[in-house]
């Protein structure tokens, strides 16, 4: 019996611990994709497990219109941890169940607060698979069969300030940007580009939205990637690693967005079990300076891959990324490499398009895990 939409791989995973996944017969895999960047702290993290078990025994779910201390704690934590500067802080939090929903909410909130409908998004960008977020996603293959999607989306070249300046006008509700494009091939934006986006949107009275669903919760070496660039958006979306495995999306927004009181809701918004997992995850990330580890090991890993490329003349065109969000652009297709890494080397990684290997390991990995990845790359590439 198979799932209906996902193509499955011939490795049946039943257990996890730290950066490792195991089959029933005990075969070990190093999870260098953190299962779509979800296992930010590694699998079966004891603190998350304990928080979830405690909450499960107390209360699985209560509707979001009744305050609950576990949910209130998460609202406060996210508001306190959100990026901030002298003029902006993202104190208002909307909780949902996935990344795409967090972006749908951001779209609605921005439209509602500005009374406008045009959205500027980027070529190669990825924002999710529901009809609104999908409309802002670039890849034709994802969109074509489902058109017509939400209208009013204008695409600009990622990184091109002039094109962006031209696109953002008095009809623009929002600009959606990933601070590092993930699915599109791991392309970091320059701090100047993000700052320019801040200036253009501010001037036009539009909302700047950073989709930090992949870059957030420490992945790029700071808690949020936009902190590294020193730019605070009006809305920030998070998901993937935020609850270390339970489904949670969050849309953080500035007062001017929240004060416009968007009509929105979701049955499962902020269920206490998911919130308990997120509280434990965020506490661990902050207390153990997990972003600092991601910065340090990420830099080490990129350096080692570059050194190996030179020393062994590996068929690698480019190594790029930030923290533990790393793309390796290879000269031939990435599919065979991913298969060989998994089946011969016991390492699971991800693609980003046809020619990029995407590394998104748990943020808690150490040099020994990075070394194992580099040795495996040399092995499958020579
Ligand atoms: C994964 C991802 C999404 C979609 O999140 P889902 O939880 O799969 O809906 C949106 N934006 C970015 C940048 C992502 O990486």
TrEMBL record:
For binding pyridoxal 5'-phosphate, which residues are annotated in this chain's numbering? 99-100, 126, 211-214, 267
EC number(s) for this protein?
Answer: 2.6.1.118, 2.6.1.124
Per the record's keyword annotation, is Amino-acid biosynthesis included, yes or no? yes
Query: Organism's domain of life?
Result: Archaea
Q: Which GO terms describe its biological process?
A: L-arginine biosynthetic process via ornithine; lysine biosynthetic process via aminoadipic acid
What InterPro entries would the database entry show? Answer: AcOrn/SuccOrn_fam (IPR004636), Aminotrans_3 (IPR005814), Aminotrans_3_PPA_site (IPR049704), Class-III_PLP-dep_AT (IPR050103), LysJ (IPR037537), PyrdxlP-dep_Trfase (IPR015424), PyrdxlP-dep_Trfase_major (IPR015421), PyrdxlP-dep_Trfase_small (IPR015422)
The cofactor remark states:
Binds 1 pyridoxal phosphate per subunit.
Give any GO molecular function from the UniProt entry: transaminase activity
The record lists substrate as bound by 129, 266
What is this protein called in UniProt? Putative [LysW]-aminoadipate semialdehyde/glutamate semialdehyde transaminase
């Amino acid at each position: 019996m198979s799932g209906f939409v996902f193509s499955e791989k011939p490795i049946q995973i039943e257990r996890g611990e730290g950066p490792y996944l195991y089959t029933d017969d005990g075969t070990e895999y190093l999870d260098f994709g953190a299962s779509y960047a979800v296992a930010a702290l590694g699998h079966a993290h004891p603190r998350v497990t304990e928080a979830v078990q405690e909450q499960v025994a107390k209360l699985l779910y209560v509707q979001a219109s009744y305050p609950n201390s576990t949910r209130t704690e998460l609202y406060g934590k996210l508001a306190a941890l959100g990026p901030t500067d002298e003029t902006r802080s993202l104190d208002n939090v909307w909780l949902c169940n996935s990344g795409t929903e967090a972006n749908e909410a951001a779209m609605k909130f921005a439209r509602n607060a500005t009374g406008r409908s045009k959205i500027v998004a980027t070529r190669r960008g990825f924002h999710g698979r529901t009809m609104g977020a999908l409309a802002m996603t670039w890849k034709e293959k994802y969109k074509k069969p489902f058109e017509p999607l939400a209208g009013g989306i204008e695409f600009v070249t990622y990184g091109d300030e002039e094109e962006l300046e031209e696109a953002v006008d008095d009809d623009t509700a929002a600009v959606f940007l990933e601070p590092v494009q993930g699915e599109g091939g791991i392309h970091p934006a320059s701090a100047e580009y993000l700052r320019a986006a801040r200036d253009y949107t501010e001037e036009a009275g539009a909302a700047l939205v950073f989709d930090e669903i992949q870059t957030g919760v420490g992945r790029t070496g700071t808690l949020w990637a936009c902190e590294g660039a020193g730019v605070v958006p009006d809305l920030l979306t998070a998901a993937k690693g935020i609850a270390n495995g339970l489904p949670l999306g969050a849309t953080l927004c500035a007062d001017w967005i929240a004060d416009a009181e968007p009509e929105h809701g979701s049955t499962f918004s902020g269920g206490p079990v998911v919130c308990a997992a997120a509280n434990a995850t965020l506490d661990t990330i902050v207390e153990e300076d997990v972003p600092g580890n991601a910065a340090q090991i990420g830099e080490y890993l990129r350096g080692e891959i570059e050194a190996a490329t030179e020393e062994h003349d590996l068929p690698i065109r480019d190594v790029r990324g930030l923290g533990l969000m790393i793309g390796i652009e290879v000269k031939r297709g990435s599919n065979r490499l991913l298969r060989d890494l998994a089946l011969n080397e016991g390492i699971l990684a991800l693609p980003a398009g046809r020619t990029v290997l995407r590394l998104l390991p748990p943020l808690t990995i150490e040099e020994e895990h990075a070394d194992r990845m580099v040795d495996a790359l040399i092995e499958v590439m020579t």
